[in-house]
């Protein structure tokens, strides 16, 4: 597939070839760990490098081990009032669904983001002079995305968040698979300690790593927005040729779904404990959707400046040409100009084309390559888990009406 993708991008010299090569190397995932593992462990020679196998191993560590520990303690399938492990939707959402998604989406995201980078070359939207700077920006993004320092920071923050969650568990007064003991002497169970030390840090690390990768992608788009771009105001996409970028957030729909599932599980638990008011639920849905849309719109804001400059320059230049064009047309029809009849400065100039269509296109052109209608999958991924959580308290059709209003705003 990669070789086929390379042939789809035309080559045009050393700097263009360097950019194409950098794009083909682009990606946040690295095979170094998998290659080392396959070399050391013979029976993992193939499986260690596959995302499904990695996902299965991580889910087994994060969710399978606590299942065994709670099963031995008799809290895996305890009565509902005791909040058994198998009915803990938070554990299912974070340690099964989210961790599996975070692991499986590695290759898919890399390949789809490459497709957007290839578009800059194939369109072509970059000037020959901008190729070298764009190639360096891509190489810098690769280094940032695979940075050991960033990974270490994510790990430290993940353990900090897990420790904060453990402190919150000790303040709980209900009976569950996580906490045991009397109200005066609460202590974490063995399964809870495993979650604090392994499962929860793993979940937070993978989530933070993906958020960092999105930041890296945003920085890459900002660097590209600063080079010379071959934009045109009459481009049929209505965004100077950059409208294709408005669809990139859908690449991260699986990430959004995993985050929303974790939030939805927390909301369902709050409903179950009567700790969340139903009337506040629609505000939560609207706020969450707004946060998601804003998160993925921010990287595209880097292109506001070049698109606005293009729009303003086109309107100004077009207005000047329109003045000359229509005054000449007025003279040809009426024999003179009705205002300032003596216009010797332009009477001898050759006829200029009518710029009306250009001006109309400039007025309609969007200065942000972002459209709510093109990212419906992202909005659906953000709201579906919350709808599922709310369905425990409200009719599904009523929830879906709210969701449709939010998506179509």
UniProtKB/TrEMBL annotation:
What lineage does the source organism belong to? Bacteria, Pseudomonadati, Pseudomonadota, Alphaproteobacteria, Rhodospirillales
> Is Transmembrane among this UniProt entry's keywords?
yes
What are the protein's UniProt keywords?
Answer: Membrane, Transmembrane, Transmembrane helix
Q: Which domain of life is it from?
A: Bacteria
Q: Which organism is it from?
A: Azospirillum aestuarii
Query: What protein name does the entry list?
Result: DUF2868 domain-containing protein
Q: State which residue ranges cross the membrane.
A: 55-77, 89-105, 150-170, 190-212, 251-271, 283-304, 374-396
